[in-house]
Design brief:
Radius of gyration: 19 Å
Helix content: 40-55%
Shape: globular
CATH topology: Alpha-Beta Plaits
Number of helices: 7
Number of domains: 1
Number of strands: 8
Order of helices and strands: HEHEEHHEEHEEHHE
Low-confidence stretches: 1-27
Strand content: 25-35%
Distance between the termini: 67 Å
CATH class: Alpha Beta
Length: 232
């Protein structure tokens, strides 16, 4: 009876620890912090949105503690953008986020956005290098949501996929980040030379097997989106 009563409380405590763990790590001065932001612009205001984002990227790259800061535009959706950030620490990002230039950017963005800015703070899960290579021609970002009881099994399976894909068949980047406030929410970031290279990986037996294995552990659809670097 005591063992049966204890198990639910143990599970609750375990999930609470998982939720708190990455937040504590992200506040470590030596822990890199990542941010992924999804931005949607009003139809007809895409050109204005591109200019605003390009100026914001140029400003952010000059900030203290900025390791990488890039803007992306989604394939087939010229009004949908993403920001991919990497900072030396949470403190560095917080200081930049509180600056006047960021407040001006947010205010200007608010006038042309069609949805609220969806910003997610991450830490490292399976990351190859602290200093990523220049943004590749094709970037695929996938939001992965798994149910908490399957978290460890899902991570093991995702790690196997990373080991099998990274640097194979023209792959340029294959990293997995984990949200600091939800350890069961992850972002897979892929870099490819071409869409054809990505398509070949998507059709590979290893990828198909992974998708089948992950489905019973998933808490939402596998949200895979393809982007191109935003350029002048």
């Amino acid at each position: 009876m005591m063992r049966a009563l204890f198990q639910p409380f143990a599970l609750v405590a375990a999930f609470a620890a998982m939720a708190l763990g990455p937040s504590a790590r992200s506040e470590d001065a030596d822990q890199a912090v990542y941010a992924v932001a999804y931005i949607e612009i009003l139809p007809g205001r895409e050109k204005q949105g591109r200019r605003l984002l390009l100026d914001h990227v140029a400003d952010a790259r000059r900030a203290a503690g900025a390791i990488a800061f890039d803007a992306l535009v989604r394939d087939g959706y010229p009004d949908q953008f993403a920001l991919l950030e990497q900072w030396q620490s949470q403190k560095a990002r917080d200081e930049y986020a509180s600056s006047a230039s960021v407040q001006d950017f947010r205010a200007a963005l608010g006038k042309i956005e069609s949805a609220a800015l969806d910003e997610r703070i991450h830490g490292e899960l399976f990351v190859e290098s602290e200093k990523p290579a220049p943004l590749p021609p094709v970037v695929v970002m996938t939001h992965i949501d798994v149910i908490p009881p399957a978290l460890e099994a899902a991570r093991r399976r995702i790690g196997q996929l990373v080991d099998g894909v990274r640097h194979g068949n023209a792959n340029l980047r294959y990293d997995v980040l984990v949200q600091t406030n939800r350890q069961n929410h992850m972002t897979l970031i892929e870099g490819w030379k071409s869409q054809a290279d990505k398509n070949a990986q998507r059709a590979a037996a290893e990828t198909v097997s992974f998708r089948h294995d992950l489905l019973p552990m998933s808490g939402s659809p596998y949200d895979e989106r393809t982007y191109r670097p935003l350029r002048e």
